[in-house]
Specification:
Layout: H1 2-14, H2 22-31, H3 53-62, H4 73-87, H5 90-102, E1 107-110, E2 126-130, E3 133-140, E4 151-157, E5 168-174, E6 180-185, E7 194-205, E8 209-210, H6 216-232, H7 241-252, H8 259-285, H9 294-316, H10 318-322, H11 342-348, H12 359-370
Parallel strand pairs: 1-4
Antiparallel strand pairs: 2-3, 3-7, 4-5, 5-8, 6-7
Bound molecules: flavin-adenine dinucleotide (FAD).
Length: 390
């Protein structure tokens, strides 16, 4: 760990941060192996332990170093990168990881469909082989940041005659293909942060397949597990984010305080701190490999807590909390929640219990995989997908 911090200091001495072009600077950080230190040498890492990452990140933050493009991290960093690292070929890793890290190329996730969300394995988007390429047709929905994305991770059905989990394959889709049509979906906040995506005759080279044909579900599971940890257990300082915003208002606006709200704020502050420490333990546990079902518990708590905290924030602001400042239609480039007003945050957090797996589904996972309770009855796992009622 000390060696790594010394490496960061040496890197900073050779690559001044003041006035640096962020993309070039981050590219140099990637080349030095200081992007994701647990990734292999040549792919942004040094083959170090995953637990060393935090010290490296903190050293760069303290030096006011350029940070990755805020539009890129969530899906690119949290979901695409670990999946490419685990299932990608050498060529795929070389092609995709560096521009993903520098933020030159933003990623989105083409999983959900109008008829396949919680039960993702029922998805209907087809990929049909044509020589060295696949031709993809279908419709995806709720695709966050598709309007700025260069690449997408995509799950499609390659064999409808097999049961639903077996006939899927996983691809990297070029969002600039003429067959990709991205249309905004306006959310309760007024913004269109996500989209519908129509895929008509989209051509994907076989070289952009991740994992074996028919093994898309296994690859998707890696993405989904990482998604829950990314959303529910991201790195945070004490009083960061939403609890920080409400605590700040509490301190700065004593005229808004009431005794009942004080009690609730304290309880939520303690819950936020417990989640932060649990998330920290989960991240350290990841040093051992792929995230386990504990990520689902962190994501569930994250959603419940965010909704309670933003509800308290609106109440604390009284009438002011009910005034919604800006309802113009926008297509944001990043997920900037902290700088928005209490009303925006309250409405946006409603989506936390849906995105990345609904709270009901996460409770099922906890019941089944952590508490070892009897599984939900499933009648459709052995039936060919084409014969399932839809
Ligand atoms: C803000 C936001 C961003 C998103 N971004 C993306 C993205 O970038 N890419 C992407 O692919 N998807 C994205 N999604 C989609 C998200 O993953 C799905 O909405 C989610 O998986 C739920 O699927 P569904 O909407 O089809 O609901 P359904 O699966 O139809 O579920 C409806 C309700 O029934 C409940 N339910 C369903 N099955 C069960 C069960 N077996 N037991 C108990 N309850 C059950 C659900 O919990 C839910 O309350 C996003 C969603 C949101 C809100």
């Amino acid at each position: 760990m000390t060696d790594l911090v010394a490496k960061v200091e040496q890197f900073l001495a050779e690559h001044p941060t003041a006035g640096a072009d962020p993309v070039e600077w981050l590219g140099a950080r990637f080349d030095a192996g200081l992007a994701w230190v647990h990734f292999p040498v040549g792919l942004g890492g040094l083959g170090a332990s995953r637990s060393a990452q935090q010290a490296v990140d903190e050293a760069f933050l303290a030096a006011n170093a350029p940070q990755p493009n805020p539009a890129a991290p969530v899906i690119g960093y949290g979901m695409a990168a670990p999946t490419i690292l685990k299932f990608g070929t050498d060529e795929q890793k070389q092609r995709f990881l560096r521009p993903l890290y520098t933020g030159e190329e933003v990623w989105c996730q083409l999983f959900s469909e109008p008829g396949a969300g919680s039960d993702l394995a029922t998805l209907a988007t087809r990929a049909v082989r044509d020589g060295d390429e696949w031709i993809v047709d279908g419709q995806k929905v709720w695709t966050t940041m598709a309007h700025v994305a260069r690449w997408a991770i995509l799950v499609a059905r390659t064999d409808p005659s097999l049961p639903k989990h077996q006939g899927l394959s996983y691809f990297v889709c070029d969002m600039t293909d003429p067959g990709v049509d991205v249309r905004p979906l306006r959310q309760i906040t007024g913004e269109a942060e996500f989209n519908e995506v129509f895929l008509s005759g989209v051509r994907i080279p076989d070289a952009h397949r991740l994992g074996a044909v028919g093994e898309g579900w296994k690859v998707a599971t890696t993405t989904l597990m990482n998604e829950r940890v990314t959303i529910g257990a991201h790195a945070a300082e004490r009083e960061d984010g939403l609890i920080g915003a409400v605590a700040k208002t509490w301190r700065e606006r004593p005229e808004l305080r009431t005794p009942g709200l004080h009690d609730r704020l304290l309880r939520l502050w303690v819950d936020a701190e417990a989640l932060r420490l649990t998330a920290e333990r989960l991240r350290q546990g990841l040093a051992a490999g792929q995230p386990g079902p504990e990520g689902s518990a962190a994501k569930l708590t994250f959603a419940t807590l965010n909704q309670a905290v933003t509800g308290l924030d609106v109440e604390l602001h009284g009438e002011e909390g009910l005034a919604y400042s800006d309802w113009t239609m926008r297509r944001p480039k990043d997920a900037d929640w902290a700088s928005r007003d209490a009303g925006f945050r309250y409405l946006r957090m409603k989506g936390n219990s849906i995105e990345g797996g609904t709270s009901e589904i996460l409770r099922n996972i906890i019941a089944d995989r952590i508490l070892q309770l009897p599984k939900e009855p499933r009648s459709d796992v052995d039936i060919p997908w084409k014969d399932l009622p839809r």
